[in-house]
Task: inverse folding
């Protein structure tokens, strides 16, 4: 199937898990989409390509490139995407399920995959998004987007163990931007997916303390902020982007 058979006024749904790339070269993974996700084809003269088509996912508004070879994995959605609305209390009740998903993912053999959101291999924000989605709660895709989406918590880096609640998100990076995210488990521990350059290659549990091992210390030095998920992401109105 070729991309000229697709319409930018039709909502599509993934019939299988697919890879989404960060350019029309399709040589670097941007994200992944599990079976059932909804997307829109973005057609314009500026983004047209003989090898791929640009898409936007409706659950989190994330854009990327779908390779021609995967066109047969999407079909018109039989029903339109309808986001669920959760309030803070409902989300709090679901946090044990969210944490259980992340811990189960850790216990399955895995490695850090940039752009990974489909089990068993995740990147940091991909694991967080997948964990919350497992309970029906959508978050934005990337760590810096998740940080902006959360309710920011006024915390003291040296008192985190006493200030954070189980299920909070902890963010790491520079003064300018969050580059990494983990899920707080309580008792000063958090679970996250970490790459080789930080001393791991997959999902593990670290501590928010300068007293932890080498990996924990590296991240603690980069601690940036903490946030609480108090609502579910509501996508933009369906429409054509250019």
Result:
């Amino acid at each position: 199937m070729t991309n000229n058979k697709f319409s930018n006024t039709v909502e599509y749904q993934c019939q299988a898990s697919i890879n989404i790339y960060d350019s029309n070269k399709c040589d670097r993974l941007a994200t992944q989409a599990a079976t059932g996700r909804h997307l829109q084809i973005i057609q314009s003269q500026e983004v047209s390509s003989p090898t791929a088509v640009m898409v936007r996912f409706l659950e989190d508004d994330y854009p990327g490139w779908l390779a021609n070879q995967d066109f047969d994995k999407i079909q018109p959605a039989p029903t339109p995407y309808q986001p669920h609305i959760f309030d803070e209390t409902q989300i709090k009740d679901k946090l044990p399920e969210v944490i259980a998903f992340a811990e189960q993912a850790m216990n399955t053999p895995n490695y850090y995959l940039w752009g990974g959101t489909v089990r068993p291999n995740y990147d940091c924000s991909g694991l967080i998004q997948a964990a919350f989605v497992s309970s029906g709660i959508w978050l934005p895709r990337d760590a810096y987007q998740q940080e902006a989406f959360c309710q920011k918590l006024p915390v003291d880096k040296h008192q985190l163990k006493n200030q954070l609640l189980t299920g909070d998100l902890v963010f790491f990076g520079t003064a300018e931007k969050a580059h990494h995210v983990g899920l707080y488990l309580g008792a000063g521990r958090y679970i996250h997916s970490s790459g080789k350059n930080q001393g791991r290659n997959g999902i593990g549990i670290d501590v928010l303390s300068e007293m932890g091992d080498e990996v924990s210390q590296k991240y603690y030095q980069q601690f940036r902020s903490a946030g609480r998920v108090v609502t579910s992401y509501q996508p933009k109105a369906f429409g054509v982007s250019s």
Observations:
- The longest strand covers residues 178-186.
- Helices lie at 88-106, 124-133, 143-149, 160-163, 214-221.
- The CA atoms of residues 98 and 135 lie 6 Å apart.
- The chain has five helices and 13 strands.
